[in-house]
Amino acid sequence: xxxxxxxxxFWTAVVVVTYGCALQVTPAAxxxxxxxxxxxxxxxxxxxxxxxxxxxxxxxxxxxxxLQDYGVTQEEASLRxxxxxxxxxxxxxxxxxxxxxxxxxxxxxxTLLIIVLLVIVILKVMNKQVVVK
Length: 133
Known about the structure:
mainly alpha
């Protein structure tokens, strides 16, 4: 017994070949999009980039606390950074590359909680039992 009659097989093959050929008519084109400024970028020189890097370092909670311990406010620190020489600014910017920029530990805790909840949900979907003793 045949599932498809001969005419149905023929027209199915014709439709599939026609459809496949029609998809090959237009070639795909790919390329790089031209770059443009976003409007929010205010960095025109390497000094500006280093000032931004140092300002982010000053936003760090640990650094801000140390500055307060030494009696320096955020505004005073920003004014001192703006008046630094290029060499001193470069030294400070390279020293601050290892520090996180302005975040606190709350985002790390939230991320870990989301990962734990995701693992528990995946285990429940797979009908596995989660036992915490």
